[in-house]
Amino acid sequence: MAVREKVINLLIPTEGNEAMLTTALDVGFILGAELHTNHNDPDNFAEFGIYDDSGVAFSKPTHINHWKRREGAGFEDSYKPLLFDTESKTFTFKAKTAKSVDKDTYFHLILMYKINPSSC
After folding, report:
1. What is the tens place of the pLDDT at every residue in 47-102?
2. CA proximity to 101, closest of 49, 51, 34, 37
3. pTM given for the model
4. Of the residues 9, 28, 74, 118, which has the maximum number of CB atoms within 10 A of its CB?
5. Listed residue (111, 105, 118) closest to 80, CA to CA
6. In the chain, how many domains are there?
7. Helix (H) or strand (E) holding 3
């Protein structure tokens, strides 16, 4: 098994409050994820979630701080645990703020997953 990264980039444009991307993921096992963002307005609640191909919240929308990498843990334990097989399904990644943002606001989700080398 090889460990790989997949980056999901979302951008909420100025005066917007939501961004989403629907995509199929490479076949593999998702270990976890970490989120990076330039959103820094504590008065404008921001959340991130993942939905499966039927629109059900696979990883329920939670505050963006819940998605940040944890310091002081081992490699696999430092990511928000997700632990699922992609099974060639389509997933929707969604970032949302309570109010419109006053600047372009990016959300970069890094998925860490294991891939069977024979499927590469």
Report:
1. 999 998 888 888 888 888 877 766 666 666 667 878 888 887 899 999 999 999 99
2. 37
3. 0.86
4. 28
5. 111
6. 1
7. strand 2-12
- Give the number of C-alpha atoms closer than 13 A to the C-alpha of residue 14, restricted to the C-beta side: 2
CATH classification at residue 23: 2.60.120
Quote the CA–CA distance of 110 and 95 in Å, as a whole number. 14
Alpha-carbon gap, residue 90 to 54, rounded angstroms: 9
Residue 45's CB is within 10 A of a number of other CB atoms, namely 13
Q: How far is CA 94 from CA 3, 64, 72, 88, in A?
A: 24, 11, 28, 19
Q: Is residue 92 situated within a structural domain?
A: yes
Q: What is the pLDDT of residue 82?
A: 84
For residue 19, what pLDDT is reported? 98
The DSSP annotation for 50-119 comes to: EE-TTS-EEEEEEEGGGGSPPTTS-TGGGSEEEEEE-TT-EEEEEEEESS--SS-EEEEEEEEEEE-GGG
Domain hosting 90: range is: 3-115
Say which residue the tokens 């081992």 belong to: 74
